[in-house]
Design a protein that fits this description.
Strand 22 and strand 23 (561-566) form a beta hairpin. Helix 5 runs antiparallel to helix 7. Helices cover 41% and strands 19% of the residues. It has five domains: 25-174 and 242-324, C8orf32 fold (Roll); 326-358, no CATH class; 379-427, no CATH class; 434-648; 656-746 and 753-804, no CATH class. Its main location: other. InterPro entries: DRC7/lobo (IPR033551), MORN_DRC7 (IPR056291), Papain-like_cys_pep_sf (IPR038765). This is Dynein regulatory complex subunit 7. One of its GO terms (cellular component) is axoneme.
Amino acid sequence: MLLANRHKTRGRRRSASWHYLFHEGQIMLRRPESYRINSAKEKQLVEIADNFQRQYLLLYPDRKPLLLCPVNECGVRKFVSTTLRPTHPGLCELHSWKDCSSFVADFLALQPLEPPTEVPSQLFSPTSVLRSQKATCFESSTLLCSLLLSLDYDAYCISGYASREICLLDQSLQQCPLLETQAKSVESQTSKQETKYGVRCQKELRSLFLLEQERKQQEAKAALLQEEELQEVNSRRVADPLRGLRVHCWVLVLSGKRRIQENFFIDPLTGSSFPTNDDNFQGIESVWNCFNCYVNKQECSSGCRDVLFDLEDPRLWEPVFHDAISQQQLSRAVQSKREDQILGRITKLTEIFPTKFRLLRPWVSRIEVSKEDLQTRFPGGKKVTHYIKAKLERLSPAVTKDGLVSRLTTYKDLDCTEVTAVKEWYQNRSDNLEERHFNKLENSTTEHFKPRRAFGLLFHKWKAVTSGTEREMRFDRPELDGLEQRVVSPQAMEESFKDRDDFLYFRHVTFGQGVSSKPCPLKTGLENLNVLKVVERFHRNESKPANEDVAKRVFLVPEMQIDLTYHLMDHRNIPSTRSITKPKEGQPFTNDMFSEFQVDRSQKPLGPLSGYRLAEELKDEEENVAVQIKASLKEVEKILDCREEEEKDLRVFSSLLEQVLAVKQKWVEACMLKEDHLMLRQKEMEVLVPLQKLVGCNDALSAEEANSYCMNFLDKYKEKLDEHTSFLEQNLETLQMDQEDESKDHHHPPAMSNEEAELWCHLCWDKKIQISAAQRRLEKHNKQMKDRCKAFLLNLQQNPLFAVHFVD
């Protein structure tokens, strides 16, 4: 039995390996001929490179072999320069070296070199690498260099030596770049210098010496903490036994093109740029582009600090092909040819380079990067990177259901066990949410939104306090009421405004026992809203005298007192004030209830009649303030309800066009719902017309009569609802038939012009939006029919004519 099982397993392995080889053979046959076969000139290139390799090893026996002719995916040896294929991706998202480097770093998964101290024997083409999304550092650099060359950068691949962290993509002992950018933005906001002609703030009555001492103490504490953290990080660094021997490949970008001022390196694994004297890069063996390959003749005992990149200097660099055209020579030749064309001369490149050797065209097929690749971005739709006390997760929008694209988790310790904060970034959401920040230490949550969303909300932060929840909201709606910020807590509410017609810019409301979670009372008044104190501040109104322009207004509700403070007059240090005590109900207004202080003694004090008029105006203003406070509290509740509904009915859009169409569909649905509301209200009034005859009747109705009336009205209302349902169904059928007729009329779109085709597309989108909105309108009406009947019956039973018989 055991022998039989062994024979079976061997047979399965042989069949599996045969199937694998057959599959690989089929893939090889599908590839172009240039992948599978070397032409005569390519064979000559390989022979020249092999001859150069032999001479190089004889002259430099202590150095490692060069990467000149590795094997491609089809097992054919190809010269490294011919593996580079400058191909413009044709996408606006890849138009700079930052875009290309970040795409390559995100799109490809690292395959470490085995062994790490030797150059690889294989180098797959960029097309195969894009298909598999797996690559070594050499293959990643080849893809990145091909993209940069197509964008007219003077880019080269470098074969050399780098640190362990660079070779293995280990960033666990580095600072997260997102945290660094956030710290810089905070510093730039706090270090705003005062301009010469700016408005100076009022001086703080504090000792500058003590403030300086506090600042120094804080800086010393921060420096001590940073030093301790640095020591802890350095203690975790383990000495690398292969330091200076780990082989790595990266990209060099030389200055002179695309407004590049200085040479710099690009690591294809992270997409980050480094100066050429960075300590992570410890030596260079060779560099190459699509024109030639150059061997370094300079010492690298101190890394790449002293390496010069003048590739045309034979004392520094040895070219594999001495008679080949270099990138710099070709650029100068093209420039001189353009100058000759301006002067009317006709020259050819063969006249400029009569005996120069030219490399063959690349054997690699055209590199194609689709928009789907940009959207997918990461292998498997997710990429996780660990940093010092941080973890960064980047996700593809096509994979996540809530539009999450990045998540940054920060920790308190280096072992990353205790979470301090979580920050998330979103894209293409229907609620316009961009960022969400969870602060575990403060137990707070912060949300950032795009402009032009419901209520003009831009920022929403809430955290739990001892007596409830404190919320901070920021808005962008200058055309509505100028509200910029609102902070609501159980004890108080603060609002900041901008560019209002009444010059109000601040309001502070103090509550007695906290804001109730129940709906606001029907009666409008500060005492009914449980308000103890309201403080309002106003900007200067130049159309009024300073002693008549209110700067601060205070409503003291329990004391029934209103205090007014006016703006400062010119060359005055004390403002004018007025105080009014409101009379109780039934109590007349007396002179004792009014007091004032005028800085300008030439001004006459207000008389009793003027004081009474001012008191009446302030009473009206107090009622207006109470209405605004009540509206603010209701708006907070509406915003919270709206956020709950948005999270339940969340949509993630794949494109900007889809988002625009969704906004248009929402607007069409809102218009249809308004029309529905008006039509149903009209039908309800038609049903209740006989009820008007019973209003003037003096005879009381019995319980049976009241019940029969209500049931008759309800049956008529149901008939009206059924009529409305049939109307909605006919409307939907009409829209669908119109769309079918239009599609039959335009059955041959190639015969249309571009303008007609574009107009036809817009018409199709409009029809689809109207049909989907009509379908939702009908579905919503059918769902709400029972609730509407119940609400209609309840309103009838609460009518004064029938309420006596339906007390329960």
